[in-house]
Amino acid sequence: MKIATYNVNGVNGRLPVLLRWLAESAPDVVVLQELKAPQDKFPEAAIRDLGYDAIWHGQKSWNGVALLSRVGEIHETRRGLPDDPDPAQSRYLEAAVNGVLIGGLYLPNGNPRPGPKFDYKLRWFDALIAHAASLLESGLPVLLAGDFNVMPTERDVYKPERWVDDALFAPEIRAAFAKLTGQGWTDALRTLHPDETIYTFWDYFRNAYGRDAGLRIDHLLLSPALAGRLVDAQVDRDVRGWEKTSDHAPVWIELSDKPARKRRSS
After folding, report:
1. In this structure, is residue 210 part of a structural domain?
2. Could you tell me if residue 199 is left (phi over 0), alpha (psi between -120 and 50 degrees) or otherwise beta?
3. Spatial distance between the Cα atoms of 213 and 224, rounded to a whole number of angstroms
4. CATH code for position 174
5. Is 147 a catalytic residue?
6. Site described as Important for catalytic activity, positions (predicted)?
7. Residue 173: inside a domain, yes or no?
8. What does each C-alpha distance from 240 to 7, 155, 209, 219, 259 come to in angstroms?
9. Which residues are annotated as part of the binding site for Mg(2+)?
10. What is the residue range of 222's domain?
11. Out of 6, 28, 52, 147, which one is annotated catalytic?
12. pLDDT digits (tens, 9 = 90+) for 241-255
């Protein structure tokens, strides 16, 4: 099963890009962020024409998350985090799809730092960490996927010295991500590409994509019950070069139907 996460940066304004990528890449399940569309303006018909069912949590002008599936019914389990510090913001959507429980998220940006937006990011991260712990306790195969708005390490950002004061690279935010993964989550992309320079976002300014001056802020985290099924993890970075595209590229993983067998020691 191929599961992708993609911050579309406006689902209606960039619908041709989304539809082209869905047709060419053919992911089985997709988590979308930053829809920037109210609930009644999600382009359900166009997405269904490509064979995908969809659920979404919209918000006018900002935020918004969605789950798409072409491999079975989407069974929604949660809309918004428990103890969400601002439930009016559409940032979390959770559902069971084809035997996997998927939490799609759009973590707050947090800039400027310091300030109320950064404080909100920290509170939202705390709520996510608490909920993630309960998901792990369930023992189910769980995937947390989306735009986390955090570069976990210096390897995940072009010229890290330029980002020391930014909310995406702040010590408190990197520590929160480490606390989250320390619960037992597997960072799929970094696990399969431990030493590579690999990004998922390039700003629109200063020819960032052309210079490969990027950030890795879109992540797929696997619970222990799912990590053994990880086969591949990649970034469709060419999509970032398309006309009128998002500043993010889609990121995807491939899961086997069963955990890979461990080799016997001789």
Report:
1. yes
2. beta
3. 33
4. 3.60.10.10
5. yes
6. 218
7. yes
8. 11, 20, 8, 17, 32
9. 7, 34, 147, 149, 247-248
10. 2-255
11. 147
12. 999 999 999 999 999
Active site residue 75: no
**Amino acid making up residue 168:** L
Domains held by the chain: number: 1
User: Per residue in 135-193, pLDDT tens?
Assistant: 999 999 999 999 999 999 999 999 999 999 999 999 999 999 999 999 999 999 999 99
User: What number of CA atoms fall less than 13 Å from residue 97's CA on the CB side?
Assistant: 29
265 belongs to a structural domain: no
pTM greater than 0.85: yes
For residue 230, which amino acid is it? L
Task: Exactly one of 6, 52, 106, 209 is catalytic; name it.
Answer: 106
- Secondary structure in 3-state letters for the chain: CEEEEEECCCCCCCHHHHHHHHHHHCCCEEEEECCCCCHHHCCHHHHHCCCCEEEEECCCCCCCEEEEECCCCEEEEEECCCCCCCCCCCCEEEEEECCEEEEEEECCCCCCCCCHHHHHHHHHHHHHHHHHHHHHHHCCCEEEEEECCCCCCHHHECCHHHHCCCCCCCHHHHHHHHHHHCCCCEEHHHHHCCCCCCCCEECCCCCHHHHCCEECCEEEEECHHHHCCEEEEEECHHHHHCCCCCCECCEEEEECCCCCCCCCCC
Give 186-221 pLDDT, tens digit per residue.
Answer: 999 999 999 999 999 999 999 999 999 999 999 999
In a domain, 144, yes or no: yes
